[in-house]
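Is this the right way to post structure tokens for a design question? Let me know if I should format differently. Anyway, here goes:
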């Protein structure tokens, strides 16, 4: 496929984005998040997590240390295990040209559950990767005396990509096999002495892995309920330099590869090498014609029937675009590409070698297939018994012709702005009896976007500023047991609740939020978490996720006007804040709409300011919001103010009241306006440059 075809191809699958808003309905700043933070003095790189719901701890691997944190409150440290590198080893590392302070340290990169009692942990250990077993008991983390070489399990270089997973006593890992960072491989090494499987690695060839960047690994229990005697499989997601495009520059593509758990390697050919390694291109067509998007992170949403499990992946563009996307893939769709699709083959007479569709005869048993009942019926009990023809074919043709396409043909979500970095997904049962996949997406500036795709309509329920400083979210984990989300970055680990239904103060707000975790309890008159209710409860609950139908909500009580005395010459601040970023705010003066381009007024996110008010400005001001959801307008009066002319001399009570309500007194000279905010409390007036007034919302929260 050449570039033009590639662009057309991506363009043709342009998903219907019309009608979807990718503006988060609400934005929650950090100070409004009830979040729990863990950070230790002098410790960085809080990026390797292992959730141990069975032990009630989050095991956290950082630089030179491992911690066990209380899952309900990660600021509570249950245990710590310092694991740093001896000074002389660090010096040695720096002699080899590596940075003493940063690279020549022990970055924990692998943290896996080995068996019921033990965990397996690996660190970069000053460019000399090392692993060991670790236990957590009696409130202590203990590292086994015996150390294993970590080559192939953990990268040498802390900045290099890697991924790993433990499955039935073996560790599957992707990492470099040498100090230089070349020879990147997918390896399997036994974790327990009980495992009888040989150590395997990928065949060394550019057609196997071509400058890969490893992203994620997961296992799917495909042997369960399989009629064909299938095998469990390990899926691996990565990006690499493409071979299949006719493109002058280096072009990256996203890939999914898979191997079978019972692979034992070949007998003579492909001995100690995977015989089931197959890979395919992973497509996530963006809304605009572009170069292929690159996979950054993957989450497996597991279903009790593995056939219904779904991989969710976040993608970012290569080249200059600020669109990130989430695509979802069915496990069976991926499996079909490997088990039924055609293969690609190198086209020999070109230089550099290009890859095209293979049209020749395919050996039997099918190259790369797991050993199943049909193979066993042929007398092939394991991969060791595979004929050379099959092995040679899979060695030379690991790439499938067809690409894996996302569910519904396009992304679940696309959004402009800071790039997506990580994703986790929860499957939530709603009151309509249906399950919805709620995506939590971490971004490069420390936010989490909580989003749902309702039958093709992309809805971002909220964005929450999770990290205290704008830095990338490097790790995300979700626990249904605690109902918490855990995030890691280079400087801290944080925790937040999956839902905060209490943020929605009215029935309308609660219903329009369309949060599957929340419903309006009409009896108690509050927005409540659906999961906290027992199923027998006969409370009157209102939720309308797909339709956003708020007609069941009791009509809103009319808003009582608030009266103030107007002092001529003052700047008057009237507060009004919309519940939603999607709502439009309208101001009325004595029933007439105020014009946004009128320089007499300043319209901003927190309300309206009447600049240098005169007696003619006395009257009634009302603030209304209009939120459009699914083609329906939801109007609401938020505030009504009655301004009465005064004589300039306020009574003590009026002054108090005006002050309390943020009415501005006094004047500042020149370009400065004297502002007085109730947020700032009594005795904190300040002068603000008129030119800076568009950022009044910021001024409100800062010190005078
Ligand atoms: C570790 O964290 C520090 C501090 O934020 C950062 O500068 C550095 O790049 C991180 N190192 C790695 C290997 O990610
Ligand atoms: C608002 O004022 C501008 C300029 O003064 C004018 O062009 C516009 O038509 C006005 N809009 C409304 C809705 O009155």
């Amino acid at each position: 496929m050449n570039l033009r075809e590639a662009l057309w191809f991506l363009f043709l699958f342009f998903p219907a984005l019309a009608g979807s808003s990718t503006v988060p309905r609400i934005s929650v700043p950090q100070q409004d998040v009830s979040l729990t933070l863990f950070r230790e003095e002098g410790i960085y790189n809080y990026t390797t997590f292992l959730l141990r719901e069975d032990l009630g701890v989050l095991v956290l691997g950082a630089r030179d240390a491992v911690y066990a944190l209380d899952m309900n409150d990660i600021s509570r440290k249950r245990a710590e295990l310092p694991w740093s590198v001896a000074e002389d080893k660090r010096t040695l590392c720096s002699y080899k040209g590596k940075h003493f302070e940063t690279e020549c340290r022990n970055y924990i990169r692998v943290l896996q559950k080995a068996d019921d009692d033990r965990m397996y942990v690996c660190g970069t250990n000053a460019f000399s990767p090392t692993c060991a077993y670790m236990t957590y008991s009696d409130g202590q983390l203990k590292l086994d005396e015996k150390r294993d070489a970590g080559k192939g399990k953990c990268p040498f270089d802390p900045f290099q990509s890697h991924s790993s997973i433990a499955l039935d006593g073996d560790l599957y890992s992707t990492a470099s096999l040498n100090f230089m960072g070349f020879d990147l491989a997918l390896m399997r090494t036994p974790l327990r002495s009980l495992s009888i499987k040989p150590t395997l690695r990928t065949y060394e060839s550019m057609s196997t892995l071509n400058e890969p960047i490893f992203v994620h690994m997961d296992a799917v229990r495909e042997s369960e309920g399989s009629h064909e005697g299938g095998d469990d499989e390990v899926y691996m997601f990565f990006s690499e330099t493409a071979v299949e495009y006719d493109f002058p520059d280096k072009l990256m593509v996203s890939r999914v590869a898979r191997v079978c758990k019972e692979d034992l390697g070949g007998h003579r050919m492909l001995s100690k090498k995977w015989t089931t390694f197959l890979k395919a291109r992973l497509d996530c067509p963006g809304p605009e014609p572009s170069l292929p998007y690159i996979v950054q992170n993957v989450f497996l949403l597991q279903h009790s029937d593995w056939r219904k499990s779904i991989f969710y992946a976040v993608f970012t563009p290569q080249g200059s675009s600020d669109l990130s996307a989430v695509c979802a893939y069915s496990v069976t769709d991926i499996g079909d590409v490997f088990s039924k699709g055609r293969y690609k083959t190198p086209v020999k007479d070109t230089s550099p070698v290009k890859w095209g569709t293979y049209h020749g005869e395919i050996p039997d048993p099918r190259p790369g297939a797991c050993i199943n009942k049909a193979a066993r019926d042929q007398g092939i009990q394991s991969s060791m018994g595979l004929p050379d023809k099959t092995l040679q074919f899979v060695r030379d043709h690991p790439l499938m012709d067809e690409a894996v396409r996302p569910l519904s043909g396009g992304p679940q979500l696309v959004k402009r702005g800071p790039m997506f970095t990580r994703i986790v997904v929860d499957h939530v049962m709603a009151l309509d009896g249906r399950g919805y996949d709620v995506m939590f997406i971490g971004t490069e500036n420390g936010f989490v976007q909580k989003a749902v795709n309702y039958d093709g309509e992309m809805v971002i329920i909220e964005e929450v500023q999770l990290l205290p400083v704008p830095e990338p979210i490097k790790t995300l984990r979700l626990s249904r047991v605690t109902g918490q989300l855990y995030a890691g970055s280079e400087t801290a680990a944080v925790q937040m609740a999956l839902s905060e239904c209490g943020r929605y103060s009215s029935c309308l707000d609660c219903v329009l939020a369309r949060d599957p975790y929340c419903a309006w309890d009409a009896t108690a008159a509050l927005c409540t978490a659906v999961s906290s209710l027992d199923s027998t409860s006969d409370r009157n609950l209102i939720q309308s996720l797909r339709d956003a139908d708020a007609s069941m909500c009791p009509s809103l009580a009319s808003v009582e006007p608030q009266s103030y005395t107007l002092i001529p010459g003052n700047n008057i601040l009237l507060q009004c804040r919309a519940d939603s970023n999607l709502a439009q705010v309208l101001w009325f003066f004595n029933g007439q709409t105020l014009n946004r381009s009128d320089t007499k007024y300043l319209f901003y996110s927190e309300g309206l300011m009447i600049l240098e008010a005169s007696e003619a400005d006395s009257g009634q001001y009302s603030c209304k919001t209009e939120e459009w959801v699914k083609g329906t307008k939801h109007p609401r009066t938020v505030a009504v103010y009655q301004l009465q002319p005064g004589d300039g001399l306020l009574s003590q009570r009026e002054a108090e009241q005006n002050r309390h309500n943020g009415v501005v007194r006094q004047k500042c000279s020149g370009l400065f306006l004297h502002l007085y905010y109730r947020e700032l409390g009594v005795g904190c007036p300040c002068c603000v440059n008129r030119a800076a007034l568009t950022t009044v919302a910021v001024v409100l929260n800062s010190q005078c």
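Format looks fine. Someone answered above. Worth noting: The helical segments are 3-12, 87-95, 331-340, 373-377, 388-396, 507-513, 652-660, 696-701. The first strand starts at residue 26 and ends at 28.
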